[in-house]
Amino acid sequence: MKKQKLVLIGNGMAGVRAVEEVLKLDSEGFDVTVFGSEPYPNYNRIQLSKVLQGDTEIADITLNTWEWYEENGILLYPGETVTSIDTVNQTIVTDKERQVSYDKLILATGSVPFMLPLPGADKEGVTAFRNIEDCERMIEASLSYKKAIVIGGGLLGLEAARGLLNLGMEVDVVHNSNTLMDRQLDNTAGKMLQKELEKQGMNFLLEKQSAEIVGESRVEGLRFEDGEVVKTDLVVMAVGIRSNMKLAEESGIPVNRGILVNDHLETEVPNVFAVGECAEHKEMVYGLVAPLYQQGKEMAKRICGETGNGYQGSVLSTQLKVSGVDVFSAGQIIEEEETKSVTLFDDWRGVYKKVLVNDGKITGAVLFGDTKEGTRLLNLINKRAPIEEYMDNKGAEEAGADLIASMPDTEMICGCNGVTKGAIVEAINAQGLTTVDQVKGCTNASRSCGGCKPLVSDLLAHTAGDAFEQNQKESICACTSYSKEEVMEEIKAKGLTYTKEVMNVLGWSSDEGCSKCRPALNYYLGMLNPAEYHDEKESRYVNERLHANIQKNGTYSVVPRMYGGVTNADDLRKIADVADKYKVPLIKVTGGQRIDLFGVKKEDLPNVWSDLDMPSGSAYAKGLRTVKTCVGADYCRFGTKDSMGLGIKLEKKFEGLNTPHKVKMSVSACPRNCAEGSIKDVGITGLDGEFEIYVGGNGGTHLRKANLLAKVKTEEEVLETTAGFLQYYRETADYLDRTSAWVEKMGLDHIKSVLANKKTFIELNHRMDEALSVVQDGWKQALEDKTLLRDLYQNLKVPAGSN
Amino acid sequence: MEKMLNKVFVATITELPENLGRTVYVGEGKLELAIFKLSNGKIRVIENRCPHKGGVLAEGMVSGEHVFCPMHDWKINMSDGNVQAPDIGCVKTFQTEVQNNQVYVLLPEN
Predict the structure, then answer these.
(1) In principle, which of A54, A538, A742, A793 could form an S-S bond with A166, CB 3.0–4.6 Å?
(2) Do A509 and A480 contact (CB within 8 A), yes or no?
């Protein structure tokens, strides 16, 4: 059979490895031709720093010798650059005007160093750190000059700096962040690394922005944005790399941040593959060797016509190659709110170890001083192993694979909307989703109760990898990129007064917003300007608009207020009469100590309210619902306080208030806590001589025990502290965040310190009073407004006949 | 086959609130419609039941040509009746005519 012509552009690690994989699968099937711009055989670029550091000769880092190419019948053209590809006729042309045709073409053009576009960057003595030529330039400089600056405190920069030290130069490392290798290390490890490298003689200029390279024809110094100038004879830029995709782009092969490839490393052009640093797979461009090798393997399978699962993305891991310093990191580096960690910090021996755990699974690790466990940890992270597997040293490595990974595709993730793991993974892969919101938009998962959000998030992290981590800024909704904070600032700064104005001025993508942003804007506007704002009925959810709770059959439920859960015979009689008169099919006692009338027709609502002649219980509101109370000191032998009395005071004070989400309160008269204050937004516990105020509790989807906010002496103080707390919640929480989520986000200590400031406390209370001053009873308001009654509660009945 | 249409008066346009739905029962409760006056003054009439779980669309939040079902937030185009992605389905839409401020719905003859 005739051999196929396989051409490789790029004689580097990724490309040559891919060719090796092809030959492994089919040693007879291909005639291989390789083009490389550098005049060397394939060498280990990762070890380049060792050449610079003087530990190694160039020959020592060569991976494939000249002989290897010969033995395998590979035609190598070193120092020859491919300048164009004709993808239609399947030929390439080089800078030596050589034309070669191919059956299969592999692009492995790697990456180019990113050079900061600083004024003076073209001066002599400014170099990147990418190839052997760069190394030679640095070595040469070290012979006649003394002082070097490396811009970039990442992996590459530190390795370059270490090499320059070895060459006898004085080295300053400039970094824009305050932590070295901040993309791979956490703060602790970053600081330990800094200390160690300082010991080795490196000098660090952290949190510095470079502004200009100064000097005549050769570099003489580096000026920073703060005006400071540091003298130097050599500037090495090691701030990052970019995919080298120029050739692909010019040849009409689709690119984004890299050359776009699928799971089999195929570009969008037939018979053209891309692998390595030049390739973009699922929005990720990998610059580390392990992923590149995995890609090569999968690509080889496809080229040789074998089936495979395809490349599925990689967890990133890093090891710093500086002698005397052992650093390893993989996966997630920085803790998020829900992250737990296993940490060992031995300052004496200079060993630091942190293993990050999310939902019991290992998701990342940072090692400093002792990196022996690196490989094992990387494996555990890759399969998202439970933390126990790591803790139990002798434990079987394969036991209990990760929850997400091991779930069958048919497993339900979102019970509300019936979305399976398989459906979500497919959507993530097919449409390149990177945020929970996008998954929600495409699949419905987590659209209802939101209880599965963490699972969806895990699944995203698992499926989409790092692209997911990078995409976490939260906008109000899909209509805008503005966050809540930004919107509130704009409302204040520009004096915006109604939702449509906000949407127009801030350039919403849809003229009238959506069901997510409209109620949120309506809330923010009303909260910021309670006296002036005109509440928009059409931007309220149905329950809040109609002041009743819609049921699945389109009828409504009615809950009259019973302050503190205390009622009397008259009220009960009225409720019974109304139930009879309107043939209410179900009367139920609620969890909030009141009575709910179910099955009321919309057109009957105003009459029901009028007959009840009781205030609305706001059972539909994003606002105060109920204040549940125990019976308290009047009757209970344990009671220390008048819990019912205080509950009623609280309910009367805050009834009708709009808040970001519903607010439930309770008052108990002793620590037995019969009113269940530990799962309320505000739960008061009366003790002998004082009250405890607990906040942020929740007994719903996200069970959360309340935190003790304050201990106070008097009922007056309970009311004021509650007002301060609620007002701060109103002003800073995202719409639809319960206090439980908000307290988690803000941190209890922060909230405490805000309320501890006397002036702030008084101001919060003032603003709360202002908000409360405009509160009206929803039912009464509707009954008094004829237009409202017609617009909201009347149905039309028309005869079917023609007229 | 040609269908005869019945022209039924449903409302006076000035009495319809903007961006809020209204429920219309036609005949003896057999047919239930949701009628909307959009912010651009246009009238839209659709079947008052979400294809998902029968939510009453007249109580939904209106945004431009779309209404969000009050039950589970399905987004429905009121002009063509199509449910928007990721959900799928369709509600019946009805043609309207406005003459002298009077809104008529064109219903197929039974």
Answers:
(1) A54
(2) yes
B71 to chain A, any CB pair closer than 8 A? The answer is yes
Cα angle A438, A441, A446; round to 5: 90
Task: Please check whether residues A379 and A420 belong to one and the same domain.
Answer: no
Q: Roughly how many angstroms between the first and final C-alpha of chain B, as a whole number?
A: 14
Residue A397's pLDDT is what?
Answer: 33
Q: Which residue has the tokens 């006949």?
A: A801
Q: What is the mean pLDDT of chain A?
A: 88
Q: Helices A643-654 and A715-732: crossing angle, nearest 10°? A: 40
Class in CATH terms, B5-108: mainly beta
CB contact under 8 A, A798 and B70: no
Query: Is residue A602 predicted with pLDDT exceeding 80?
Result: yes
- Averaged pLDDT, B25-50: 89
Count CB atoms within 10 A of the CB of residue B74.
Answer: 26
Same domain assignment for residues A635 and A767: yes
Strand partners for B94: B45
Q: In angstroms, what CA-CA distances link A204 with A230, A293, B18?
A: 12, 34, 64
CB-nearest to A443 from B26, B54, B86 is: B86
Coil vs helix vs strand at A640: coil
Check whether residue A372 and residue A445 sit in a common domain.
no
**ipTM confidence:** 0.89
The backbone region for B41, taken as left when phi is positive above 0, alpha when psi lies in -120 to 50, beta otherwise, is left
Q: Which domain holds residue A445?
A: 407-469
Peptide bond into B86 cis (omega under 30): yes
Q: Measured between alpha carbons, how far apart are the two ends of chain A, in Å? A: 83
Please state which of the ranges A207-211, A257-261, A443-447 shows the lowest mean pLDDT. Answer: A443-447
Do A762 and A626 share a domain, yes or no?
yes
Name the pTM for this structure.
Answer: 0.54
Same domain, A65 and A84: yes
| B53 at interface of A, judged by CB pairs closer than 8 A | yes
> Which of A30-34, A275-279, A443-447 has the weakest average pLDDT?
A443-447
Among A271, A210, A278, A215, residue whose Cα is nearest residue A241: A278
pLDDT band, very low/low/confident/very high, at A403 (cuts 50, 70, 90) = low
Asked whether the beta carbons of residue A796 and residue B22 sit closer than 8 angstroms, the reply is yes
